[in-house]
From TrEMBL:
<dbReference type="GO" id="GO:0032185">
    <property type="term" value="P:septin cytoskeleton organization"/>
</dbReference>
<feature type="transmembrane region" description="Helical">
    <location>
        <begin position="116"/>
        <end position="138"/>
    </location>
</feature>
<dbReference type="GO" id="GO:0005938">
    <property type="term" value="C:cell cortex"/>
</dbReference>
<keyword id="KW-0812">Transmembrane</keyword>
<feature type="transmembrane region" description="Helical">
    <location>
        <begin position="145"/>
        <end position="169"/>
    </location>
</feature>
<keyword id="KW-0472">Membrane</keyword>
<feature type="transmembrane region" description="Helical">
    <location>
        <begin position="189"/>
        <end position="209"/>
    </location>
</feature>
<keyword id="KW-1133">Transmembrane helix</keyword>
<feature type="compositionally biased region" description="Basic and acidic residues">
    <location>
        <begin position="240"/>
        <end position="252"/>
    </location>
</feature>
<dbReference type="GO" id="GO:0030866">
    <property type="term" value="P:cortical actin cytoskeleton organization"/>
</dbReference>
<dbReference type="GO" id="GO:0045121">
    <property type="term" value="C:membrane raft"/>
</dbReference>
<feature type="region of interest" description="Disordered">
    <location>
        <begin position="216"/>
        <end position="252"/>
    </location>
</feature>
<dbReference type="GO" id="GO:0005886">
    <property type="term" value="C:plasma membrane"/>
</dbReference>
<dbReference type="GO" id="GO:0031505">
    <property type="term" value="P:fungal-type cell wall organization"/>
</dbReference>
<dbReference type="Pfam" id="PF06687">
    <property type="entry name" value="SUR7"/>
</dbReference>
<protein>
    <submittedName>
        <fullName>SUR7/PalI family-domain-containing protein</fullName>
    </submittedName>
</protein>
<dbReference type="InterPro" id="IPR009571">
    <property type="entry name" value="SUR7/Rim9-like_fungi"/>
</dbReference>
Amino acid sequence: MAVGRLFSFLALLFLSVSLLLLWFTILSGITSTSPLRQTYFLRADTSVIPGARPISQWTYFRICGLDNTDCGPSRPGLPLGDAWATDADNVPDELIGSYGDGTTSYEYWYLWRFGWVFYLISLFFMTCAFLGSWLACLGRLGAGLIATVSSVGLLFLSVAVSLMTATFVKTRNAFIADGRSADLGAYGFGFSWGSWAALFIATVLFCMARRGHSSDSQAKRWSGSTFGRRKSSGTAGSRRSYDGRRVKDEYA
């Protein structure tokens, strides 16, 4: 197999893994089947907060109870404070404010809202790269195009995962500082960062595929020119041998 096509195939494999992990992250809380049932960004004790569940788990579209049960409605860009009532008492001061109908502070409103949007933007570019990945197998231009699209997706996913990490690590710390138990979701963080790592590898492989196609083209040109020189040399040698025999025959 040509080097360019081999790198393109490997890049497609890692891109597929990245997309799968990203979908696991986005669909968390939608269904109770594994691994989505175990996928959340943060779990915290909210039992003393009015309007909140005893245990709240933050997922991409919903806020749920323990094991992603008793979930609220799916909403785009869900406010962090949607887990409790408006102007609720006993919420860590850092988290509550006038945003999200009086449930969320300015900082956390925008941190997660932008993170939420960047997940979708990265998903769009990753899907475009996946659907057009067959172009990377055709030549240097196709591999370069898909590498560019994949790089844009990687940029947006980097911002999305970074904002998600900042949002929920700070939220966990706020709950702990207020004397509540809270922990990060291993699946939610694992799927998000795993998707980022797989996309990073895929992007590097698409770039290597572009270089591989260039090397393959140069190898073909070199092989063709070498074959042509050998053929020319053989033809010239045969002509000289024939001319020599003809001269001998004339003088015989």
